[in-house]
Write a sequence for this structure.
């Protein structure tokens, strides 16, 4: 059972992209202003959670498209890999490697930023995995 | 020497294979290994008699000064010969005794394993190496006593033997370590030279006591003798070998081995002699009271072990000579007796003297072996037992200050043993034949050993000078740590000792004659016997289990609240004590509180109280949320926007979690009685006070900020980020974060798995 | 000048919020209370955010303030709808002065089609 | 590649875990990845120990940020030894799991959880940063929580509630202590903390926090009176899980205690050592008595973990180099032996269908070789020479006697006798006596996945016993390092830092 | 869709406070991506939007809000006895999700009214009013007020 | 300066509102009423963030407001769903 | 303010400890939640609370200049918060399943695995 109603459905439709955009905003600027992968991931998860609450698990699953645990694996993989290049080059694990010039909008890119992206994915994935499992169980 | 030990170990591990491959011949083939070694050791006689001890040694645990060292002197050699010689016979015997029994391979393996350990024990020249082999004999004896493991009695006896000797062994280990400390070396053959140093050392007495404990338990000295009769649950060849000829002598061996280092002191004399004499008498009395031949023999063994201990305790030239002679002869006759009794049991189906009789005709060879050995036990000339007894009579005169007492005691002991010997020798074979009509002579495997041993006893008695002296003299020398001359003649002439022997035999004869009546007369006293140390052991074990149960009921009672109370209480008590006893709490520096801040603080406190007082889960969750939001606001107010953002987001998602789970959760209930509330409340308040004090004390210390300052300086310059907290998380301390997201991943995996994997879907896992 | 305007916006907003809170206490049933909070609180918060956006005067801050306001306007009525519906379905009582409840009649018909046939 | 050595034991299992997670649709590949990852971990650990034994320390500053600002991974001999044993245990249990964990559990992340557990354990051993140690504990704990509860049987859940609650409490104490230490000393790097506290910063608070950490780590190590969670839970999950828990988890607690009290908190040794010694004695005694009251295979073993932890802590309390060597040796021995005993318990269950002692029996009669395979670890645990446990006990007893702690030593010896009692009880009940009813698999051959690890671990136990010399030398070099914290500090912070 | 993407791009620029073309492009790209992502959600958007009528609509709405808040203030501060609340069933001419939602939201945000629920056949909106003369009066107000205006802008 | 004073006063007013909302939260009497109180609290929180940002001179508080607006809404919806499904109070 | 926070933390601890010792399984969960909040606040306080603003390098500056609040405890707390979230989710599910499997919320009744 869901909270389905035209009102909530429409609200969800509006809020989902907006919230996700906000989560990307938090992720992108986290290195320089409050934000980052954690809170970004949490906010993104909140967006999907709203869908879950209003339209049910299946709708949220379709929306997310991938299995949340795959998202977790991908995030962990990203985070782990962001530390590897220097290791393979004989340096210390997780030594930051940066592009020389900052890009517009997203700013300077480097392996720590990639790491933050990994964090974002993991956080999003785990919240969704937990919520999906709970919602499934609830039926 | 290591080679010979390894050879036996190898034979042990190959025994099952050998039995499978060779069938019936396996017993003899396996016996060839100790037999060969016996021959090898016989070959060593010459050089050892000439005073040339051979030695080999490797580093084992160099860091502790422990060496895998072996040393072959007279004492070791005597034992080595007994171990390998009797060992070979017993293996042959065992193959016959257990013919057709599927457990035979196991028997052979265990016996060979034991043999290896025993050989190692007597050859070892390092205290720890000796201990290693010592314990291995205990372990293998455990498996052998419990050979009939389907029977509860066998299992219990095996455990009892292991427990008693194991306890002694541990004491001995400590004693050996202390001895090593006092002597500065663990090398046994070097201890004698350090006698003065050892005996003057403050650790001398504790070391002595602990070592004696080990020796006494192993050699079944009073009051630890009770495990030995129990060990008769083992098959006869095991009893013959372990519990008469070899293992129980390990304690005697140790005492003899340490005599040069520890012997001669008053403490040594009193303790060892007292133990020996008491055991001698106790064993004899108890032996006389038996009707089961095997138990009877077991108690005579106890008595003999007492005799040996007594002799070692006397620690003179005569006593050394007597000890070694007695050791040798006892091994021969007692092994033969056990094996013979085994044969009787095997053929007649009983070992009760009251049910046996007239078997001599059916089992002539067995009868010969048993009678010859029993007479040797009784000390009748011209058997070697008589020679040993003569030596004993001489030696006991030298008991310091208590010669008369000891003489008297040993006289009665010997008389009782002689009577027992009579029971063993006469009752089964002569007189009226009882029910065992079908009994006939045992197969060769069963009579070969006893007969050979008996013959050896006779031969030694007849030609002691040429046969026994080469064995006894080097052994006595080694035991005394100085060259000792032993002269032996078959007939020592009319000496006071001879008179004593005759008197003792006469007394024995009388006792034998009145045996049945004495037993009947003493029957009412049997209950008394149950009050012995065996009873003490039983009570100890029962007490142990009762204590264990009581402790478990008290500690591991399954009540989580109590676990938490104890855990929290421990933390608060310990850390609280440390804090309040060491840190003076000063009033914190000012800084002022703004109204808004105070309001937030108040809200949090109210929230916390509301959580406690909440009567429904939802109110509890909401109140907890209030506290969480309060924390977030505090973060926000004091410069932690990242924290605040995250905390707000997490709080909300937590609410979501609770809401999804909650409907299935029970309402909050008051379950504990008021007394528990009070108790827990006390601990909780103490915990809260401690934390407050801790925060105050910690924040009152000067604020060291090397990390903070370095991060502030390097965040942008070196790590390209202006948000220092985030840079710490993804760069400076990214390794933490890696771990953290791993935790999250696992948590999610766990939630999903737990909810989806229902027990009913699950196939059985191991 | 800006300062005064900011202060005014903040105070006005805060006043509306307080009003909402007062309504939450004073009004007699769930639905009336929600009528108060869903409007006054949203407006109050928006005014305050507008004040804050004005105060900093940068595009970044102002933009963010606007986003928050938009967000509030999007979410507040939805939340009110969700609670109101839930409250009604759980039977949160109407104030006795309520003059009509056309939803109950409809609900009753929906839940009990038999009766509708009779009617 | 040498430079990467200290981090490989964390990365390899972590990568394996991710691979197992990603391979959720390919069960066979997942199993292969699990064992392959375990092999790699063992190799990495062996390489690390080889390197560290020669070079004394291997230090990696993660992210190339200098200590104490970044996170340091530090392998001294003690840590490297434990990592190697983690590799050994990991491989043994990974193989054993193939034959003992059901497909449904596997499909729900068993292999992933298992390797995360190993990663957490290695991380705990290798980190040189106190907060990172907290994180490592959490990684390990979270994985253990799930492994414990996975399957959802009632007993598992009941055990898990206690396990989780008490371990969370421990984490809480740990976190508070770390936070407060930062507030007092301004640093989190263990070497830097050692140096700072050595210089006399807030001595009273330092002792307070030492006590708090003693409790936190004591809970993980399961010492008296903080061990309740262990006997309540260790017998509930599948055997492979019990085995890896029994082998490794409490040892991480012991490791943390050793690290904390040899490196960081040396302000009041007379107080803390006496305290630890007292804890050790009570731990030994209560553990072994607890076992005496049990009549279920794994419950007996679980209580013995507690008891044996007492031995390890005893070495720490005695605090001499020899005693610390004893602790190291004992840890090495115990990890192998305890893991193996639990694995043997699995074999017993496989044969008998249960682990309740009253329903078992007859294994010695029907499978004597297997029975003897039990005796190796069992006797080793009881300290029967020349198996590994004997040497561990010997070193500790000798250290106790050298230190003049006669009563403590006597108790330690008595406890080993009671351990023997318990082991023979298991032997009596499960192997010697006639079973009340025949087990389910009387005539089937044991799968090699189950037997292989048991044989291998038993072989290690025997080998360590016979070749105790080199092993003790290694332990004693590790003990010497532990007794000389200044070297550790300089290895992490640079020459001259210890002053 | 394009309009929504544009709105999201504006939102991005507002969030970042960055009016540069790069930000606009990025915002647009992100917006399109997010809308694509949200597509499976389904639901009915507006049939069309008459942009030129939007400002008038917004003004009307703002006025209503101010008025409604003053009314609420009066209601809160006045004694409760003066209230005449009712739950009224309002028949709907609107039938798209977005339209119904918008109407409901507007009702909630304005004059003493609150949308409680939509009937399952989506033909009736249940509205709670703080103070109304009669249910019919309320129905008429809504039909001629917001509903008419929504039809003007979005049809 | 004026702005700061205004902010402080605003905070005081909102604080009073928070107290009142708490009263409703505690008094209930039913779940829905409590949820309304929580919902109002989050709105008040946004107000606090807004006024706080002026008082502290830190626009970061507006980010907090944004997160609050977003997630608090989610919490309310969650409670509503809980309530509709007959959850215990 | 530090003193006030110390008191608040102490109260949170006291309340949390008291709750976890209750027999009700739900109170246990709530108590652990309180303890988590308290621990986070405590660590945060160890950075010496100050109203000096967030540790963010202002645009244009090369490095952070005092005064600012200590970022290290903040990073630690952030890590701890997120870990607690995972733990809490797991704990909730565990408790739910334990409740379902045992049919009771009384922790005293969960004693079949001991003794
Ligand atoms: Na553990
Ligand atoms: Na153990």
């Amino acid at each position: 059972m869901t909270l389905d109603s035209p009102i909530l459905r429409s609200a969800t439709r509006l809020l989902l992209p907006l919230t996700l955009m906000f989560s990307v905003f938090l992720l992108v600027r986290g290195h320089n202003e409050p934000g980052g992968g954690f809170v970004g991931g949490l906010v993104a998860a909140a967006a999907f959670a709203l869908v879950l609450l209003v339209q049910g698990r299946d709708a949220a699953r379709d929306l997310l498209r991938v299995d949340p645990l795959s998202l977790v694996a991908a995030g962990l993989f990203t985070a782990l890999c962001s530390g590897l290049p220097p290791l393979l080059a004989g340096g210390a694990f997780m030594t930051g490697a940066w592009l020389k010039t900052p890009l517009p909008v997203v700013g300077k890119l480097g392996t720590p930023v990639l790491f933050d992206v990994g964090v974002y994915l993991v956080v999003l994935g785990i919240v969704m995995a937990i919520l999906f499992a709970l919602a499934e169980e609830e039926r | 020497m290591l080679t010979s030990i390894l050879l036996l170990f190898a034979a042990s591990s190959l025994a099952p294979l050998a039995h499978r491959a060779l069938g019936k011949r396996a017993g003899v083939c396996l016996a060839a290994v100790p037999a060969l070694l016996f021959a090898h050791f016989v070959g060593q006689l010459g050089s050892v008699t000439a005073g040339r001890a051979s030695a080999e040694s490797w580093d084992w645990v160099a860091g502790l000064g422990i060496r895998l060292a072996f040393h072959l002197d007279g004492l070791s050699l005597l034992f080595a010969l007994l171990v390998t010689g009797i060992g070979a016979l017993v293996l042959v015997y065992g193959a016959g005794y257990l013919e057709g029994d599927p457990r035979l391979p196991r028997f052979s393996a265990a016996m060979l394993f034991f043999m290896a350990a025993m050989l190692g024990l007597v050859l070892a020249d390092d205290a720890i190496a000796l201990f290693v082999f010592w314990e291995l004999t205990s372990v293998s004896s455990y498996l052998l006593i419990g050979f009939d493991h389907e029977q509860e009695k066998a299992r219990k006896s095996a455990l009892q033997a292991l427990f008693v000797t194991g306890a002694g062994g541990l004491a001995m280990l400590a004693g050996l370590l202390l001895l090593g400390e006092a002597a500065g070396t663990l090398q046994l053959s070097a201890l004698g030279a350090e006698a003065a140093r050892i005996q003057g050392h403050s650790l001398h007495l504790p070391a002595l006591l602990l070592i004696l404990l080990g020796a006494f338990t192993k050699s079944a000295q009073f009051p630890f003798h009770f495990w030995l009769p129990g060990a008769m649950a083992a098959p006869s060849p095991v009893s013959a070998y372990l519990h008469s000829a070899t293992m129980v002598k390990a304690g005697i061996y140790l005492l003899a081995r340490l005599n040069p280092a520890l012997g001669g002191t008053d403490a040594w004399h009193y303790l060892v002699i007292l133990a020996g004499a008491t055991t001698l008498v106790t064993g004899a009395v108890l032996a006389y009271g038996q009707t089961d031949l095997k138990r009877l023999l077991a108690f005579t063994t106890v008595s003999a072990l007492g005799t040996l201990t007594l002799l070692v305790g006397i620690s003179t030239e005569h006593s050394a000579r007597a000890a070694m002679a007695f050791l040798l002869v006892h091994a021969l006759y007692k092994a033969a007796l056990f094996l013979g009794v085994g044969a009787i049991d095997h053929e007649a189906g009983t070992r009760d003297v009251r049910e046996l009789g007239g078997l001599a005709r059916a089992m002539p060879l067995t009868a010969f072996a048993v009678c010859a050995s029993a007479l040797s036990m009784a000390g009748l000339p011209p058997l070697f037992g008589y020679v040993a007894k003569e030596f004993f009579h001489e030696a006991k005169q030298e008991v310091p200050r208590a010669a008369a007492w000891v003489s008297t005691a040993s006289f009665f002991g010997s008389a009782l043993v002689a009577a027992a010997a009579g029971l063993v020798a006469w009752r089964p074979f002569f007189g009226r034949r009882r029910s065992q009509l079908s009994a006939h002579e045992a197969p060769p495997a069963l009579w070969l050993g006893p007969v050979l041993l008996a013959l050896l006893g006779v031969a030694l008695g007849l030609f002691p000078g040429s046969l026994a002296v080469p064995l006894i003299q080097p052994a006595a020398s080694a035991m005394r740590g100085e060259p000792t001359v032993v002269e032996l003649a078959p007939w020592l002439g009319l000496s006071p000792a001879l008179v004593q022997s005759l008197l003792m035999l006469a007394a024995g004869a009388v006792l034998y004659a009145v045996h049945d009546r004495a037993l009947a007369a003493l029957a009412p006293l049997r209950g008394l016997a149950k009050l012995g140390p065996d009873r003490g052991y039983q009570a100890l074990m029962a007490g142990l289990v009762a204590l264990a149960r009581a402790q478990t009921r008290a500690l591991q009672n399954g009540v989580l609240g109590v676990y938490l109370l104890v855990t929290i209480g421990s933390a608060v008590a310990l850390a609280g004590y440390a804090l309040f006893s060491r840190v003076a709490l000063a009033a914190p520096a000012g800084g002022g509180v703004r109204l808004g801040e105070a309001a937030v603080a108040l809200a949090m406190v109210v929230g916390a109280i509301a959580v406690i007082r909440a009567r429904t889960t939802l109110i509890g969750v909401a109140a907890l949320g209030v506290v969480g939001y309060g924390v977030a606001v505090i973060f926000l107010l004091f410069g932690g926007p990242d924290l605040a953002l995250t905390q707000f987001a997490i709080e909300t998602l937590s609410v979501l979690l609770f809401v999804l789970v909650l409907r299935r959760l029970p309402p909050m209930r008051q379950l504990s009685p008021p007394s528990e509330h009070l108790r827990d409340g006390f601990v909780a308040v103490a915990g809260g006070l401690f934390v407050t004090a801790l925060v105050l004390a910690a924040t009152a210390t000067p604020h060291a900020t090397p990390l903070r300052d370095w991060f502030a300086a390097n965040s942008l310059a070196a790590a390209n980020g202006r948000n220092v907290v985030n840079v710490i998380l993804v760069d400076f301390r990214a390794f933490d974060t890696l771990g953290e997201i791993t935790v999250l991943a696992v948590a999610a995996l766990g939630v999903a798995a737990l909810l989806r994997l229902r027990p009913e879907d699950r196939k059985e896992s191991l | 000048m800006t300062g005064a305007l900011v202060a005014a916006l903040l105070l006005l907003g805060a006043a509306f919020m307080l009003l909402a809170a007062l309504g939450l206490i004073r009004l007699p049933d769930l639905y009336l209370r929600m009528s108060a909070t869903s409007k006054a609180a949203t407006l109050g918060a928006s005014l305050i955010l507008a004040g804050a956006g004005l105060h900093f005067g940068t595009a970044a801050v102002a933009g963010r303030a606007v986003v928050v306001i938009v967000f509030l306007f999007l979410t507040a009525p939805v939340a009110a709808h969700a609670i109101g519906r839930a409250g009604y379905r759980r039977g949160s009582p109407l104030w006795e002065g309520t003059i009509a409840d056309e939803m109950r009649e409809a609900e009753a018909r929906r839940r009990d089609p038999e009766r509708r046939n009779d009617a | 590649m040498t430079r990467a050595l200290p981090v490989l034991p964390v990365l390899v299992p972590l990568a394996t875990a991710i691979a197992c997670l990603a391979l959720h649709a390919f069960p066979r590949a997942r199993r292969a990845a699990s064992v392959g990852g375990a092999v790699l971990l063992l190799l990495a650990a062996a390489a690390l120990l080889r390197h560290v034994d020669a070079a004394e320390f291997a230090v990696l500053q993660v992210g190339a940020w200098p200590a104490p600002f970044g996170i340091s991974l530090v392998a001294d001999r003690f840590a490297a030894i434990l990592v190697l044993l983690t590799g050994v245990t990991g491989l043994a249990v990974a193989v054993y799991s193939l034959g003992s964990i059901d497909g449904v559990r596997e499909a729900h992340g068993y292999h992933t959880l298992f390797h995360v557990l190993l990663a957490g354990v290695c991380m705990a051993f290798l980190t040189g940063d106190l907060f990172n140690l907290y994180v490592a504990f959490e990684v390990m704990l979270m994985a253990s929580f799930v492994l414990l509860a996975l399957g959802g049987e009632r007993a598992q859940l009941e055990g898990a509630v206690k396990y989780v609650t008490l371990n969370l409490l421990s984490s809480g104490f740990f976190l508070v202590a770390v936070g407060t230490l930062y507030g007092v000393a301004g640093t989190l790097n263990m070497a830097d903390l050692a140096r700072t506290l050595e210089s006399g910063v807030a001595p009273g608070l330092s002792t307070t926090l030492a006590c708090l950490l003693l409790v936190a780590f004591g809970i993980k190590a399961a010492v008296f009176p903080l061990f309740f969670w262990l006997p309540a839970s260790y017998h509930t999950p599948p055997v492979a899980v019990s085995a890896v828990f029994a082998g490794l988890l409490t040892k991480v607690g012991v490791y943390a205690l050793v690290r904390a009290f040899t490196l960081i908190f040396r302000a009041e040794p007379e107080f803390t050592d006496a305290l630890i010694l007292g804890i050790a004695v009570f731990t030994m005694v209560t553990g072994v008595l607890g076992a005496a009251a049990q009549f279920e295979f794994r419950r007996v073993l679980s209580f013995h973990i507690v008891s044996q932890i007492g031995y390890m802590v005893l070495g720490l309390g005695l605090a001499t180099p020899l005693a610390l060597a004893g602790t190291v040796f004992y840890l090495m021995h115990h990890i192998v032996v305890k893991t193996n005993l639990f694995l043997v318990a699995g074999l017993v269950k496989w044969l008998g269908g249960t682990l309740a002692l009253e329903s078992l029996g007859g294994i010695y009669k029907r499978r004597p070789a297997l029975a003897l395979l039990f005796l190796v670890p069992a006797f080793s645990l009881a300290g029967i020479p020349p198996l590994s446990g004997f040497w561990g006990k010997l070193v500790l007893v000798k250290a106790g006697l050298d230190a003049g702690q006669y009563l403590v030593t006597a108790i330690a010896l008595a406890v080993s006798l009671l351990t023997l009692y318990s082991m023979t009880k298991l032997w009596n009940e499960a192997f010697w006596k006639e079973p009340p009813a025949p087990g389910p698999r009387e005539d089937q051959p044991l799968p090699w996945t189950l037997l292989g690890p048991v044989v291998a671990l038993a072989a290690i136990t025997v080998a360590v016993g016979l070749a105790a010399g080199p092993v003790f030398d290694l332990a004693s070099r590790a003990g010497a390092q532990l007794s000389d914290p200044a070297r550790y500090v300089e290895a992490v912070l640079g020459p001259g830092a210890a002053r | 869709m394009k309009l929504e993407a544009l709105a999201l791009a504006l939102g991005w620029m507002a969030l970042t406070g960055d009016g540069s073309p790069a930000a606009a492009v990025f915002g647009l790209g992100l917006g399109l991506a997010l809308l694509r992502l949200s597509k499976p959600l389904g639901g009915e958007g507006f049939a069309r939007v008459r942009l030129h009528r939007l400002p008038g609509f917004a003004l009307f709405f703002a006025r209503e809000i101010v008025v409604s808040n003053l009314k609420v203030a009066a209601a809160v501060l006045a004694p409760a006895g003066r209230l005449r609340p009712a739950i009224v069933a309002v028949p709907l001419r609107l039938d798209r999700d977005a339209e119904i939602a918008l109407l409901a939201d507007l009702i909630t945000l304005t004059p003493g009214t609150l949308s409680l629920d939509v009937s399952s056949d989506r033909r009736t909106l249940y509205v709670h009013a703080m103070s109304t003369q009669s249910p019919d009066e309320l129905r008429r107000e809504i039909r001629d007020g917001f509903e008419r205006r929504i039809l003007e802008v979005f049809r | 300066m004026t702005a700061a004073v205004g902010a402080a006063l605003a905070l005081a007013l909102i604080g009073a509102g928070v107290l009142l909302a708490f009263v409703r939260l505690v008094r209930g009497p039913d779940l829905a009423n409590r949820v309304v109180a929580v919902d109002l609290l989050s709105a008040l929180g946004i107000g606090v963030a807004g006024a706080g940002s002026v008082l502290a001179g830190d626009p970061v508080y507006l980010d907090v407001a944004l997160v609050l607006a977003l997630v608090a809404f989610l919490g309310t919806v969650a409670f509503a769903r809980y309530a509709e499904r007959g959850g215990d109070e | 303010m530090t003193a006030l926070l110390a008191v608040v933390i102490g109260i949170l601890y006291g309340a949390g400890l008291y709750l976890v010792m209750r027999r009700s399984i739900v109170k246990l969960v709530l108590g652990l939640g309180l303890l988590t909040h308290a621990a986070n606040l405590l660590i945060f306080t160890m950075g010496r609370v100050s109203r000096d603003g967030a540790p963010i390098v202002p645009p244009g500056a090369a490095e952070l200049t005092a005064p600012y609040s200590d970022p290290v405890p903040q990073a630690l707390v952030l890590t701890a918060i997120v870990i607690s979230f995972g733990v809490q989710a797991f704990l909730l599910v565990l408790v739910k399943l334990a409740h379902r499997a045992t049919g009771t919320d009384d922790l005293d009744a969960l004693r079949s695995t001991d003794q």
Remarks:
- The interface with chain G takes residues 32-34, 38, 123, 126, 130, 133-134 of chain A (CB under 8 Å).
- Chain A has a mean pLDDT of 90.
